[in-house]
Amino acid sequence: MSARPGFYRQELNKTVWEVPERYQNLTPVGSGAYGSVCSAYDVVLRQKVAVKKLSRPFQSLIHSRRSYRELRLLKHMKHENVIGLLDVFTPAATLEDFNELYLVTNLMGADLNNIVKFQRLSDEHVQFLIYQLLRGLKYIHSAGLIHRDLKPSNVAVNEDCELRILDFGLARQTDDEMTGYVATRWYRAPEIMLNWMHYNQNVDIWSVGCIMGELLKGKVLFPGTDYIDQLKRIMEVVGTPTPELLKKICSEHFFVSLLAVDLLKRMLVLDCDGRISASEALSHPYFSQYHDPDDEPEAQPYDQTLESKDRTLEEWKGKFVLAKPTEAVWRVLSLDLCLGLFFHRCQIIL
């Protein structure tokens, strides 16, 4: 079967990709449980982009809801330090064939996980990176959201040291009932491991503290081998005097400022209600050379009502379209007008 008009097919890592001709030079860059990502060159925007193919977006009700939520969250995010949506498309010709979904975002290059493996960062670099991370997190939290999966591999940095937060697959609103099985264990807040069902946005602050400590130390701060070992390692550090914490984070060959240690102490607090917020952390003296209240914007509240209802698989598919298609070609509507895939004269509005 040939590709749709305006599309072409390419097999990558035993997976067939069918994308618009505007996206050239597809190159695999990563994969996970919920999709695969390729870099590509957008001949329209004349820049490199990241194209994510969602893995079986309508395989089940859970997959369908997740796909819809991820698309809406990416559309909602409009911030320099948070990944946003450039484009969305599918090669399907009819609603019945609508089984694949592709998302296009900025291509960011390396993530913090790769960076910390190969180089030791100076205190100045850590300041700038963590400031951007908290700036983006303030924006996410102001929308009423919790990321829940902050870790070095979900934080991307380009060659200019510009940072963006990635992957909203586990994001939830603050009033949702939560599950404990989120986030990589090493960056997971204690209350998540203890399976508290109503934790708050400060679980993300704990994760930022773990990331910051790793950047400063050059090693994972709490590399637990299981839940019990993870909690044990946390208890060995949190709550001890500042010199002990400093000794834990620093090596004899590397200096960490006392301001950095003070900020870490405020983020790595066992009582989640006692942790510093993202907004408060931005005004900490550690970031004095970057902090600008007028350049740390907040988001519009995120409305989850459209994705919180129970629907059948076909109803979830239908949420991506406004009406039954009358033409056999999908196109992409300008994101300046609204988000969505659409058949000719048939839009998908989220």
Automatic annotation (TrEMBL):
Classification via PROSITE patterns: MAPK, PROTEIN_KINASE_ATP, PROTEIN_KINASE_DOM
Cofactor(s) it depends on: Mg(2+)
Keywords: ATP-binding, Kinase, Nucleotide-binding, Phosphoprotein, Serine/threonine-protein kinase, Stress response, Transferase
Domain Protein kinase: 23-287
Entry keyword Ribosomal protein: no
Keyword Transferase: yes
Pfam families: Pkinase (PF00069)
Highest taxon above the source species: Eukaryota
EC numbers, comma separated: 2.7.11.24
GO molecular function, one term: ATP binding
InterPro entries linked: Kinase-like_dom_sf, MAP_kinase_CS, MAPK, MAPK_HOG-like, Prot_kinase_dom, Protein_kinase_ATP_BS
Signal peptide span: none
Family: Belongs to the protein kinase superfamily. CMGC Ser/Thr protein kinase family. MAP kinase subfamily.
Protein name: mitogen-activated protein kinase
The organism's taxonomic lineage, starting at the top: Eukaryota, Metazoa, Chordata, Craniata, Vertebrata
Gene: MAPK11
